[in-house]
Design brief:
The complex is a heterodimer of chains A (351) and B (342). By secondary structure, chain A is α/β, with parallel strands linked by helices. Chain A is 43% helix and 15% strand. In chain A, helix 1 packs across helix 2. Classes of the chains: A alpha/beta (351), B alpha/beta (342).
Chain lengths: 351, 342
């Protein structure tokens, strides 16, 4: 990580005194417009921001909450935004989005730049950023309070909200088993995506709990997209009907919708000949036909709790507030639930 | 409600205006206790320094606000993609301002949240871009803005559009060319003015093809999937000889609702019924059969809106590039020739 430029560096580069830089920063009127513009240009160029501690002592708050997110997760972030909205609003905060790419090496630097330049008061981290130590280290170094949503590493549960993905997936498999299914296929999402590993582990748990063996032939690797399921699952459905799974469980709703589309195209009746289940309960789940059985991930509830946890930290930071905040456990668990719809049913016996 | 002035703050805090100004500008010559007291009054009175005066001081926040209705969060996601791309290059950040377009205090809320975030300018998405009080308050507060797809004023330099009406006429003509004589239509939410334009386009198309407008074949939807299901039921429950052989819905969600009703009633798509939508959201290609639709260039429109706004903020003249970005027809499996024409 790059070193924070000092006010002296700004002054030298701008060929003015430190005092002038300070005046510009504090909006003092004793500076001409031309000097101000010149100094501001250097400040931006050097990416300088006053030390967060000093800023905090001065009581300078931006009342902005940073919401950095990984590119492909935009709709996830809109959900986080809706869930956290009322809490942040009541506390007088607004959220600023920042798109970044979790795969690049300097993602932590980029987030550091973002929080510094806007002087955000706190940050909400969504998956997969919530799993990156480099990012949380940078925020700790900047003394910026943060809350993680759905981190997979639970070793440090403080300031995080997570859900029971793994248990919920095991329940889904046991539910399918109870409906008479013995060959239950699984569609794995993108290996780098948040939750992929936990969900697959839950599928394995569910098989074991039902006394079924894991058959690698019934497991298909995809990349979380609708299109990948169309391409990769075809082989599974092309098998002779006595070998074909009678139920397919996909790691997200988009892939489940892909399997559903394939079934329609191949003339396989759902749920009579094939049950299909997804994960997420995205809007898509009820917009396809038949509607998808899925696992509802309480994203908005998680976002709400994350916002509460963050506001709690921010309030504890400032001594000016007399009202004692209702204390929340710093690690919050929100339960997922099974949503049974028309895409799953009893297995038919094929001998 | 009138806005608190610096004078009100000074009176209540029992200090001079100069002291309030020092507190706001973080000048160090103020006692901590005085600062505390003034800050309390500022919060209590919800006082914000005058944004235009602040603008004169040359302080920019490098923040762009995105105003959207909370019920259109998915549309906002599409808009966000285009806006973020432009802002990233220009090193601006995006603040989200979700609001409720039906709230009676909408205009005040918009002002409050834009001022509070110190955004340099805002992008206004539909249906907010059609709400007069919102536009009026932005003008009054001198907050620079660009509107996406407002109903009229295609000549307004502060707006970006697509050709809703024209492309809907083309779609209707295409359905007629496939031999459809009874083409049903599902109107969108009347509060979304650009969506209402789609209905006009449908009627234009009927006229061009010499087909008569039959009110029985037109249903009022509200843009949601469930309203599409309701309208689909209404249209498909007509006696078979009066039932539409094609249904064109003002958006993809409603078209997906029609598909579900057709499946449930055993009406085969596209053999017995052609279905078309508008927007080309991911859903359109994920339902079965995949939807014929009109591809709206949402990311391009929003990128263009962001460009226009940044130019305004920099005081640069408009580069004269198009502010109307054309939509295109996308044919997939949900439409086909009318029975008797195959």
């Amino acid at each position: 990580m790059s070193l924070r430029p000092a006010i002296g560096t700004v002054a030298t580069q701008a060929r003015v005194s430190i005092r002038t830089v300070s005046r510009v920063l504090n909006n003092s009127k004793a500076v001409t417009a031309a000097t101000r513009n010149h100094v501001m240009g250097v400040i931006r160029e050097l990416n300088y921001s006053p030390s967060p501690t000093a800023r905090r002592l001065a009581g300078h708050r931006s009342r902005l909450i940073g919401l950095p997110f990984d590119g492909p997760y935009a709709s996830y972030v809109t959900d986080i935004q809706s869930g956290s909205r009322s809490i942040f609003r009541a506390a007088g905060y607004q959220t600023v989005m920042h798109a970044c790419d979790s795969q690049t090496a300097n993602v932590a630097d980029e987030i550091a730049k973002f929080v510094r330049s806007l002087r955000v008061d706190g940050v909400i981290l969504t998956p997969p950023l919530s799993d990156l130590h480099a990012v949380t280290d940078v925020l700790s170094a900047e003394a910026i309070p943060f809350v993680k949503i759905a981190p997979t590493a639970r070793s440090v549960p403080a300031h995080s909200v997570f859900t029971n993905d793994r248990d919920a997936c095991a329940w889904m498999v046991r539910h399918l088993f109870s409906q008479g299914h013995r060959r239950i296929g699984y569609v794995i999402g993108h290996p780098d995506h948040a939750g992929t590993a936990q969900r697959y582990a839950g599928y394995c748990d569910g098989l074991a709990a039902s006394g079924l063996c894991l058959d690698a032939q019934n497991v298909v690797q995809c990349d979380s997209t609708f299109e990948s399921a169309i391409e990769q699952v075809q082989g599974l459905l092309n098998r002779r009907s006595t070998l074909r799974p009678t139920a397919i469980f996909a790691g997200n709703d988009s892939m489940a919708a892909g399997v559903l589309r394939l079934a329609h195209e191949m003339g396989i009746a759902v749920p009579e000949e094939l049950s299909i289940a997804g994960f997420g309960d995205e809007p898509l789940a009820i917009q396809v036909w038949p509607r998808l059985t899925t696992i509802r991930q309480p994203l908005q509830t998680m976002a709400r709790q994350a916002a509460q946890l963050l506001v709690q930290q921010l309030v504890n930071d400032s001594k000016s507030v007399a009202m004692p905040p209702p204390l929340l456990d710093p690690a919050q668990r929100v339960e997922s639930s099974l949503i049974l719809r028309q895409s799953t049913g009893r297995a038919i016996r094929r001998l | 409600m009138t806005n608190a002035t610096i004078r009100d703050v000074a009176t209540q805090a029992r200090v001079s205006i100069k002291t309030v100004s020092r507190v706001i500008n973080n000048v160090k010559t103020v006692q901590p206790q005085t600062r505390e007291r003034v800050m309390r009054v500022i919060r209590k009175l919800d006082y914000h320094p005058n944004p235009s005066a602040r603008g004169l001081g040359g302080s920019r926040s490098y923040l762009i606000g995105l105003l959207y209705d909370n019920s259109c969060a998915y549309y906002a996601t599409g808009v966000l993609a285009g806006v973020l791309e432009i802002c990233r290059e220009a090193r601006y950040q995006v603040v989200l301002h979700p609001c409720d377009y039906q709230a009676p205090t909408l205009a005040e809320e918009v002002t409050r949240s834009v001022r509070q975030s110190r955004a340099d300018g805002v992008i206004v998405t539909p249906p907010l871009s059609d709400i007069r009080s919102v536009i009026a308050t932005l003008e009054e507060q001198r907050i620079p803005f660009v509107k996406i797809a407002p109903a009229e004023n295609t000549s307004d330099e502060r707006s970006v559009h697509t050709n809703d009406r024209e492309s809907c006429a083309r779609m209707t003509e295409q359905l007629a060319a496939l031999g459809h004589k009874r083409i049903g239509f599902i109107i969108g939410n009347p509060d979304h003015a650009a969506v209402a334009d789609r209905y006009r386009g449908y009627r234009d198309g009927l006229r061009t093809c010499g087909l008569r407008l039959d009110r029985k074949l037109v249903a009022q939807g509200y843009n949601s999937y469930s309203s599409g299901v309701e309208c689909g039921r209404k249209l498909l429950n007509l006696p078979v000889d009066q039932r539409p052989t094609a249904i064109f819905a003002s958006n993809d969600e409603m078209a997906a609702g029609v598909l579900a009703v057709a499946h449930a009633m055993g009406v085969t798509v596209p053999e017995d019924l052609s279905v078309a939508g508008f927007d080309d959201v991911p859903l359109a290609s994920q339902v079965w059969p995949a939807l014929t639709t009109i591809t709206q260039p949402i990311p391009a429109m929003s990128a263009r809106a962001a460009e226009l706004l940044l130019r305004r903020l920099r005081g640069e003249p408009d580069d004269g590039a198009a502010r109307i970005l054309k939509s295109s027809l996308t044919f997939r499996q949900s439409t086909g020739p009318a029975r008797g024409r195959r």
